[in-house]
Design brief:
By secondary structure, the chain is of the alpha+beta class. Helix content is 35%, strand content 26%. The mean pLDDT is 92.
Length: 104
């Protein structure tokens, strides 16, 4: 919804991406290659609750929606807040957090 709302205010908005990025080398391999040992990979399930303020702040932190992107960032923010409030916040998000760690 944030991307759709931004598209109303920006003519050359980049295509929406999934957020999934594939790398040639795993984080574990990068750590190993750089001298780390006892490398562990773990996943944690986390449920986050987002408020309207939290969503708006997060959206403005994205490169496609930084305030400098808009001729009128206040108008975009107002419209985004209206749309978010219509969805009955707060919003729950269940995500997996992946952690790769090691020791030098």
């Amino acid at each position: 919804m944030a991307h759709e709302t931004a598209s109303e205010y920006v003519d050359d908005l980049p295509e929406r991406e999934t957020g999934e990025v594939e790398y040639d080398e795993t984080y574990a391999r990068v750590l190993e290659r750089n001298g780390y040992r006892d490398i562990e990979e773990r996943e944690f399930w986390v449920e986050r609750e987002w408020t309207v303020d939290g969503v708006v702040g997060y959206v403005f932190s994205l490169s496609f929606a930084s305030p400098a992107t808009f001729d009128d960032p206040e108008a975009f923010e107002t419209r985004l807040r209206e749309r978010l409030r219509a969805l009955d916040p707060p919003f729950a998000e269940a995500v997996t957090v992946e952690v790769t760690s090691g020791r030098v």
